[in-house]
Design brief:
The structure is a homopentamer of 155-residue chains.
Chain A: E1 3-9, H1 17-26, E2 32-38, H2 44-53, E3 59-66, H3 70-90, E4 94-100, H4 107-130, H5 132-137
Parallel strand pairs in A: 1-2, 1-3, 3-4
Helix pairs in contact in A: 1-4, 2-3
Chain lengths: 155, 155, 155, 155, 155
Amino acid sequence: MPKIGVVDTMFARVDMYPFVMEAFSDMGWAPEVVRRTVPGVKDMPVAALSLIEKDECDIVITLGMGGGADVDYTCVHEACTGLQGVMLKTGKHVIDVIVHRNEAKGEKEFLDICRDRAYKHAINAYWLIESPEELTKRAGTGERQGFGNEGSISP
Amino acid sequence: MPKIGVVDTMFARVDMYPFVMEAFSDMGWAPEVVRRTVPGVKDMPVAALSLIEKDECDIVITLGMGGGADVDYTCVHEACTGLQGVMLKTGKHVIDVIVHRNEAKGEKEFLDICRDRAYKHAINAYWLIESPEELTKRAGTGERQGFGNEGSISP
Amino acid sequence: MPKIGVVDTMFARVDMYPFVMEAFSDMGWAPEVVRRTVPGVKDMPVAALSLIEKDECDIVITLGMGGGADVDYTCVHEACTGLQGVMLKTGKHVIDVIVHRNEAKGEKEFLDICRDRAYKHAINAYWLIESPEELTKRAGTGERQGFGNEGSISP
Amino acid sequence: MPKIGVVDTMFARVDMYPFVMEAFSDMGWAPEVVRRTVPGVKDMPVAALSLIEKDECDIVITLGMGGGADVDYTCVHEACTGLQGVMLKTGKHVIDVIVHRNEAKGEKEFLDICRDRAYKHAINAYWLIESPEELTKRAGTGERQGFGNEGSISP
Amino acid sequence: MPKIGVVDTMFARVDMYPFVMEAFSDMGWAPEVVRRTVPGVKDMPVAALSLIEKDECDIVITLGMGGGADVDYTCVHEACTGLQGVMLKTGKHVIDVIVHRNEAKGEKEFLDICRDRAYKHAINAYWLIESPEELTKRAGTGERQGFGNEGSISP
């Protein structure tokens, strides 16, 4: 049975974990899931590393939120750079779901973005592990997470 | 007994170490604590590394302050990138408490931010070591350090 | 027979893989090609790593697209930093084809850039593996991918 | 006897090495000092690495100067990131003295900043090796190098 | 006999390799030189790595050119970060000659900058290998490559 790590944060204002589980369920997928919650995005990479190296997860999904200030973007950048380091060290995918606080104007729209992004990236994780050909079918088609797809520009 | 490393700096204008010890005490926690003081934020990562690799600390808390100029933000960014490297190399959490000089207008407000951020992150360190389920209970609830919590956005 | 890895994304709005194959064909080159599709640019480095370390590819071409917002540039930067890490770890070239959404005004022009950049970089990959002297012949001549060459400035 | 590495550059417009030696002398400290001069700041990290790994220095002080243009700040950033890598790899402190050309308006003021920063950081290096408790005494007191101390903000 | 690697690019609009060879000749130096041409700056680090690890070069000179757009500066930054990684991994110097397209207004001036920077850095490489004391003689004297020296600011 595949083993999936999920890292989320106390900082985020939306609990995105249920959207991941919903996506797995909708796919008819019941992998073993190990969840770790950390304070904020900069704590996610080492948690992801531990899920891969110690818990032997096959893939990790990180659910992070960035505030809207410049310094928040820098924190997210540091976290994402750290996640690249985790992937480089372990050879495993870490699907990085980041929502920036000011991507939406209102709370309802923000929640919708969180849900859509987490849900779709959970499906991406499923495909990476179980059906990589599903990803290739959609190559170059402008798939988006958090928003509607942009579609393909064809010759 | 858990062993906790604390790195602080001469550059900071507030001595944040007592806030960490106060938090541990309030939690009824009495781990072994090893403190290292370095000149500024860029010297923190190697001190944290040494606390983990040589002193065998289970977790490290770094207490750093950034000045308000552009070049100070870059220094903090370099320090934080270095801390990601420490976590990646050791697999241990480094809880990174950074306060930027211009987060507050007056000295009183600045001091309050320092106290709140250091205190709450010390509790986060405690939870990471002793009660990780406390973090998960608060996933997605908008917990902040340095300011009041922002709360959860729920469906 | 050389083995070439190609990584592309669902995020991209143009399927650049056929342009790579067209270039190989035009060169009369028929290497073994292994294709991996990932969600977006930040997922490319670990896919490239895997193609080199597990599939034993001699070189990898990544086909990525960035959106036009600031945060998209940061994502591309994180991906490219990750690709540097892959090259540093493996000692193999990863030819990094990136097209930014706002390099062109219209869709037709955008498609042309994608085609030209992917096609020419596929030839570069071919030269790196089979005829490195072709690259040296063109040293300092202002070769471009995606646009016309700029030419050499000679004494 | 402790062994101290000093890296400086031809690019810098001030020879900061004598200020380091003066500080050591004022401290009554006579460690073995190995000096390496490189072209500019981006060449400092590998020189520091070599001083630690091959010459077995206990600590390294780098004396760098940045020009005032944007591209110069980026070079300094790359150098500082490299120095973080050196510290992470070796576990040894590299005290990074950087002066930016436009921190001062006139040459006299610039020289004063260089002298003060190099002198004080040399003392910091001394304390790190010989008397780390001196650093801790000054934790959170707003110590500056290059300028006067800012002092502590106390409750 | 020392072995020198030179990496240059097709992207550059000036062939800087002859300036390197001219400098070596003017110094009366005839090391073994291994040249590798790559598409652009982001391909330079892995080529430099290979020259050091496989070809056993003692030092590498990279000759890169950046375009004038923001995204070009980012590419150069990624390349330079990669070169820091190469130096950190191998312990060998990589002398990084970068010319940005908009450092000059006209083509004649641009060519002069390229020539001067490549020529002088080739001499720096010679000094690093054969006469490091020549570098120390010039410590803090404001040596520039691409432009005239700025000179020393003395007490």
